[in-house]
Inverse folding.
């Protein structure tokens, strides 16, 4: 009976060894599969990162272009503001000259009326 028992124990040990080997191979295959999945996910994330970087660069280029356009528009606005100020100053100057001319016209008319009256007085005395 001890021989049968030894054979049974040897068969059980062999079965356990075979079971361990099979389980080890399955675990290794599963690890390889998981590693492959993770590598695919990493690659997908790298692709997404490259796409996002390209979009960011495009937005950066657009931002630079818009900043340059804004700077140009600001310079143009400043130029227009200077021109407007010069025109306002010129308009104020012309208004002052017009007022001065209007006062001269009024004085000349008054002088003309005065001389007209004197001429009338002289003619009446003749």
């Amino acid at each position: 009976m001890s021989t049968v028992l030894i054979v049974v124990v040897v068969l059980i040990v062999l079965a356990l060894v075979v079971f361990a080997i099979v389980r080890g191979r399955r675990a290794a295959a599963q690890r390889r599969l998981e590693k492959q999945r993770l590598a695919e996910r990493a690659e997908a994330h790298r692709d997404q990162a490259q796409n996002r970087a390209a979009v960011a660069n495009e937005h950066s280029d657009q931002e630079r272009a818009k900043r340059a356009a804004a700077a140009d528009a600001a310079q143009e606005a400043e130029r227009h503001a200077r021109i407007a100020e010069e025109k306002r100053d010129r308009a104020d100057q012309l208004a002052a000259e017009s007022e001065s001319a209007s006062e001269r016209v009024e004085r000349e008319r008054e002088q003309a009326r005065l001389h007209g009256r004197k001429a009338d007085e002289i003619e009446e005395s003749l």
User: Anything to note?
Assistant: DSSP finds one helix and no strands in the chain.
